[in-house]
Amino acid sequence: MTKKPIYKQSLSIFFACFLAGILSFTTLGGWVSVQAQATQAPEFIKFPEASKLQLSGNGKPFKPAGINQSEKPYDEDRGTIGWDDRIPMISREYPWSTIGRVQGTTNDEKRYHCTGTLIGESVVLTNSHCVIDEKTHQLSRTIEFLPNVINGVVPSRRDIALVKRVVYGTDFTGNEVTNQINDWAVMEINKPLGRKYGYLGWQSLPIASFLKNQKQLFFVGYSGDFPNPNKKGYEFLSAGQGQTASYQFGCSIVNEQQNVLFHDCDTAGGSSGGPIIASIGSQPYIVALNNAEIKDVGTNKGLINLAVKIDFLDRLFSIN
């Protein structure tokens, strides 16, 4: 009998394996050791109460007039380096300008980072577990958004934004499937960075569309294992891993079960909240939100990655 691919196994089998210690389910935030600059604690709002936030967004991408657009996340004269599917995102042009680092501080003063994307003038998309500790259920003390970080540098220090309010999908007190489906957060920041850097649109697509268009998506995230400055061609990326985003083209959504998406984009800690993007009508749209990895405990090998469906944004903005 031919063995089913891992992503075609039942979700109930996955969670049974987690309990048995055969597989590990890892959300993909990363820990950092830099000093916190944010001093303002954000206001946290549950999804049913989100109307009080009065968010503005219509799902359409926006490119400011003062910024160029490029399909490539690197200089025109730069090619793919080595065998890794991922390459450094080192472009200041749109749409790469919309993606940045989410940096937070927990209640016990630990620092971590994830990935976030501008989806409005002052609205950033990421995961719930990037703003709430999934084990203790405690809310982050402070959260910042740093746009378009390349080699540890933002285009302007004045553009480091504090998160004022957060609407979150889960506080991780539900069951595994519910937590996975709702692992999203929408953050209101204190600066209208979308006017300067632009923002991405979003579009909810059926699984049939994903399966029909394999290897057509791209993914960006501030993975904690990337880049390797010792690798030939990466020597100039000296700020450290997780300080330059990785870009991968040609990955796919390979399955959906119980409203959970499975994808094969390359990920690591720090890439949580990273957008899985499709080019639709030559414009960039977020079609899924990366959030977790399933590993074989025995080999520590990554088997498949999970993502959150993006249709929650339609529901969220319809009540604002």
Structure in a nutshell:
This protein has 320 residues and is mainly beta. It has helices at 11-20, 176-181, 194-197, 207-212, 312-318, and strands spanning 23-27, 30-32, 43-46, 87-88, 99-105, 111-120, 123-126, 142-147, 161-168, 185-189, 201-202, 217-221, 246-251, 253-257, 260-263, 275-280, 283-296, 301-309.
Walkthrough of the structure:
With 320 residues, this protein is mainly beta. It has one domain: Trypsin-like serine proteases (Thrombin, subunit H), CATH 2.40.10. It has five helices and 18 strands. It has helices at 11-20, 176-181, 194-197, 207-212, 312-318, and strands spanning 23-27, 30-32, 43-46, 87-88, 99-105, 111-120, 123-126, 142-147, 161-168, 185-189, 201-202, 217-221, 246-251, 253-257, 260-263, 275-280, 283-296, 301-309. A hairpin with a 2-residue loop joins strand 16 (275-280) and strand 17. The longest helix has 10 residues, at 11-20. The relative contact order is 0.21. Residues 16-25, 32-36 and 76-83 have low confidence and may be disordered.
Question: Secondary structure elements and their pairing?
Answer:
Elements: H1 11-20, E1 23-27, E2 30-32, E3 43-46, E4 87-88, E5 99-105, E6 111-120, E7 123-126, E8 142-147, E9 161-168, H2 176-181, E10 185-189, H3 194-197, E11 201-202, H4 207-212, E12 217-221, E13 246-251, E14 253-257, E15 260-263, E16 275-280, E17 283-296, E18 301-309, H5 312-318
Parallel strand pairs: 3-9, 11-17
Antiparallel strand pairs: 1-17, 2-6, 4-13, 5-6, 5-8, 6-7, 7-10, 8-9, 9-10, 12-13, 12-16, 14-15, 15-18, 16-17, 17-18
